[in-house]
Design a protein that fits this description.
836 residues; alpha+beta; Isoleucyl-tRNA Synthetase, domain 2; Isoleucyl-tRNA Synthetase, Domain 1; Ubiquitin-like (UB roll); seven-stranded mixed β-sheet; five-stranded parallel β-sheet; 26 helices; globular; RNA-binding
Length: 836
RNA sequence: GCCGGGGUGGCGAAACUGGUUAGACGCGAGGGACUUAAAAUCCCUUGGCCGAAAGGCCAUCUGGGUUCGACUCCCAGCCCCGGCACCA
């Protein structure tokens, strides 16, 4: 293989060979490819290790430094696992469906089916250049029919089990762009592109019943070895709250004629007799002074009185027009009175029923009992609409009559008041006591609620896998038979969303007109596509089985390789991607398709690489392209440098100051190996440092402390070469193995230079000899009255009196010891503390 | 507001479960060697203040506390980053 000349000069025959990263890296890329070095024996290996990293979205701009930081961190971990004897599978793929790709394609006027392969080719080039130990024979492209065939299969598994259902739900709608917008595309209530006011539109959409799995998704977290922050985010998102559902009787004015405030209307007489609310504060029921129903609450029309109907209608129209984001961020309270009243089951008093958009239909029962005295939102609403505010909880320095100028919510040491027989109960006790009391009266019961919502998977867009359902007038929604999968996404020229609000596929009759698979009558396909999170929710199951095209994942292989041993990715996916993956895995487990409930045994979130204080993004113009760095410094230097920047799990600001230090380190290692003496005996002090370094690197890499592992190797090289000494072969050989995960190309080259003909990655990990870690002596710090006054050098294992004697023998220390110590603290091998 | 993670030299950062005179490693800076010169390489110095030196004092966001001993633990507060947020 000839290479273009990249040297300014041709080295003289006797000049020592210098380190040429471009040459070394090209050589080893080629050798790895020829030898299929990165393709594990999936079926036959004895110690499989599945090192997964989150697959990227292949953007048109190519890989950026943030991606490479994450992938390198995973690669080091994976290569280390290989060195300690595992057969490691490190796959990668491309998450290429979705609104990102689609919008980009629309913007540049190209078709995603043309753009995506180009982007993937570019990513593949960059990832290969970075020296990742990726098995390129088993990649996944979510937009390829051979993959999304099985994404559709996954949908059908849920459909079959009753976990996929249709319901009307609101989407953001831009009346000017005439398209559905994701929440991220709405900025302050306006379309991010044309600034038109965004509205809500209700559409029939497919949902997955992830809420059925909420208790399991929450409970299993305790068994997972995951970054604490990720688990916390999941717990938060699932949002368990313990409370009670309480039934409030709605006053029927015909029956209860005579109640002064109520006007009889026929509507209220229509048989509706109660509204159920959810509360986490049943203890405050004596302070519930009104009820609020969400504007979408189904009972709202039935209880609204004739004279309030117009006001309620107007309010409901108004909130329907507001986009979802603004509605949830606008804290200014709005609402309308329904004209109806309810009976507070605790006090027996009549309280008004209102509607307001600060109550959300999708949480709890869509209705609340308002306790303005002890809830900030209710307080704000009551103050604005002049509703009564009662105190029913008093803090340690308050009484039942202390005025409320704001909601009092501090439960610490607080007790109930104005609550009849429950007066004086501490809040916690009162919650249970009142819940039990209401249950006795058949007015309520304790319940657990989750904040988690069902997963809406419908997208009224083009660039995704068609949802494999056929609608028949007689049979209803029918699953596409598995033998007919995939439902291929047609290559249509005009995939622009239009004012119909449905997917562009709905404009293609030739595509969606099909016979019903069940009865054969004329029917039509679902024209929505599915969410990208469905594509990425199961990809880890596919990787080891790539090539087995008759099944989504082969049973034997899956048994061998899954669950994933380690998963590394960004915390931006802490919630959705990881939660959906766990959910789908549980469903697969329940359906008997896999033998485990949790897909990722260990998960570590890497830090975020930012630039100038902001996350890298093209719009901010702060994206760093790794190509130029790799070009200039080589992949090994750049990889090592990225990891040397700081703790992997913390990330940080990218800057290139200091990259030369890492290159210098590799140069020094190169020279050390090249010049190592094969005949001279290794130096004992150097060997001690070597064994300390082996221990340090071996301890640090498994916990992703890459920065300190690199520092330890640098320190060793400083010792190795100090005083311009000539290293010995036994001193450098293990170093090559230590550095291999970080700088794989140069490590292979040096390993070969040392005369080995197998890959350094098949050479094992050097063992350290505990006996060689320490020398014969230790340095002990001596403190006098808490200040360190000096060090004494004593034999290892020296006892207190020996050290004490040595300390007094040291003039620098002894001058501070002006009397007999009243106390001596001795920590063997570390310090002696004298108190006078 | 709630939940995570952080605040240590000019800069990125080290410091094991409270214990070897805090700042390893690297960048930058200063000085030196080699060179006609430069680059590269190698060597030395580099937290601050006082001092000629010996040496001393101060120093890990701030203020308290526990301890023989605190970057590390406790209490109170300030600031930065990330996520969630009218979830009843």
């Amino acid at each position: 293989m000839t290479s273009p000349t990249q040297h300014p000069h041709t080295p003289a025959p006797d000049e020592p060979i210098g380190y040429d990263p471009a040459l070394v890296e090209r050589t080893w890329r080629e050798k790895w490819a020829q030898r299929a070095s990165n393709q594990p024996d999936i079926a036959g290996c004895a110690r499989p290790y599945y090192a997964l990293m989150m697959f990227p979205y292949p953007s048109a701009e190519g890989l950026h430094v943030g991606n490479l930081f994450a992938f390198t961190g995973n690669d080091i971990f994976a290569r280390f696992q290989r060195l300690i004897g595992h057969t490691v599978f490190e796959p990668i793929g491309f998450d290429a469906f979705g609104i990102h790709s689609e919008n980009y394609a629309l913007k540049v006027g190209a078709h995603p089916m043309e753009l995506i392969p180009k982007n993937i080719a570019n990513f593949t080039r960059q990832l290969t250049r970075a020296g990742l130990m990726v098995d390129w024979s088993r990649t996944v492209d979510t937009t390829h029919p051979s993959y999304y065939k099985w994404t559709q299969w996954v949908f059908l598994q849920l459909f079959k089990r009753g976990l996929a259902y249709r319901k009307k739900a609101a989407v953001n709608w831009c009346p000017s762009c005439k398209t559905v917008l994701s929440n991220e595309q709405v900025e302050g209530g306006h379309c991010e592109r044309c600034t038109t006011l965004v509205e809500q539109r209700a559409m029939e959409q497919w949902f997955f019943r992830i809420t059925d799995y909420a208790p399991r998704l929450l409970a299993n977290l305790d068994t997972l070895d995951w970054s604490a922050s990720t688990k916390a985010a999941q717990r938060n998102w699932i949002g368990r709250s313990d409370g009670a559902e309480i039934r409030f009787r709605i006053l029927n004015p015909l029956e209860d004629a005579g109640s002064a405030a109520v006007h009889a209307t026929s509507e209220v007489a229509s048989g509706i007799s109660e509204v159920t609310v959810f509360t986490t504060r049943p203890d405050t029921i004596f302070g519930a002074t009104y009820l609020v129903l969400a504007p979408e609450h189904p009972l709202l029309d039935l209880i609204t009185s004739a004279d309030q109907q117009a006001a309620v209608d107007a309010y409901r129209t108004r909130s329907a027009h507001q986009d979802i984001v603004t509605r949830k961020t606008n804290k200014e309270k709005t609402g309308a009175f329904t004209g109806a009243y309810a009976t507070n089951p605790a006090t027996g008093g009549l309280i008004p029923v209102c509607t307001a958009d600060y109550v959300l239909m999708e949480y709890g029962t869509g209705a609340i009992m308002a306790v303005p005295g002890h809830d900030e939102r209710d307080f704000a609403f009551a103050a604005k609409f002049e509703l009564p505010i009662e105190r029913v909880v008093a803090g340690p320095d308050q009484t039942a009559r202390t005025p409320l100028t704001e909601a009092f919510t501090d439960d610490a040491g607080a007790v109930l008041c104005n609550s009849e027989r429950f007066d004086g109960f501490p809040v916690d006790e009162a919650k249970a006591a009142i819940a039990a009391w209401l249950e006795e009266k058949h007015a309520g019961k304790a319940v657990v609620n989750y904040r988690l919502h069902d997963w809406c998977i419908s997208r009224q867009r083009y660039w995704g896998p068609p949802i494999p359902i056929i609608y028949c007038d007689d049979c209803g929604p029918v699953a596409v038979p598995e033998k007919d999968l995939p439902v291929v996404l047609p290559n249509i020229a005009d995939f622009t969303p239009d004012d119909s609000g449905v997917s562009p596929l709905a404009r293609h009759e030739e595509w969606y007109r099909v016979p019903c698979p069940s009865c054969g009558k004329k029917a039509r396909r679902e024209t929505d596509v599915s969410d990208t999170f469905l594509d990425s929710g199961w990809y880890f199951l596919r990787y080891p089985s790539v090539g087995h095209d008759d099944v989504p994942f082969d049973a034997t292989i899956t048994k061998k390789w899954l669950p994933v041993n380690s998963y590394i990715g960004g915390n931006e996916h802490a919630v959705l991607h990881l939660l959906y993956s766990r959910f789908l895995t549980m469903v697969m487990y329940d359906a008997g398709h896999v033998h485990f409930e949790e897909p990722f045994t260990t998960f570590r979130a890497h830090g975020l690489i930012i630039r100038d204080g902001a996350k890298m993004s093209k719009s901010k113009g702060n994206v760093v392209n790794p190509d130029e760095y790799i070009e200039e410094w080589g992949a090994d230097t750049f990889r090592t440098y990225l990891m040397f920047l700081g703790p992997f799990e913390e990330g940080g600001d990218f800057r290139d100051a200091g990259i030369s230090g890492v290159k210098r380190f590799l140069d020094r290692v190169w020279a050390s190996v090249r010049d190592a003496s094969a005949t001279d005996e290794p130096d004992q002090a150097v060997m001690r440092k070597l064994h300390q370094t082996i221990k340090k690197v071996g301890d640090d890499v498994p916990v992703l402390a890459y920065n300190t592992a690199i520092a330890a190797m640098m320190e060793y090289v400083n010792v190795l070469r100090s005083g311009e000494r000539k290293p010995r072969r036994a001193e450098v050989e293990p170093l090559v193995q230590l550095m291999a995960p970080f700088a794989p190309h140069i490590a292979e080259e040096l390993w070969q230079m040392l005369g080995h003909d197998i890959s350094v990655f098949d050479s094992g990990w050097p063992a350290f000899d505990a006996a060689r870690l320490a020398g014969g002596t230790v340095k002990i710090a001596v403190q006098v009255n808490g200040k360190t006054r000096g060090m004494v050098v004593v034999a290892e294992g020296a006892d207190e009196s020996t050290v004490y004697a040595a300390a007094l023998a040291d003039a620098g220390i002894a001058k501070f010891v002006t009397g007999e110590p009243t106390k001596r603290v001795f920590v063997a091998g570390r310090l002696l503390s004298l108190v006078l």
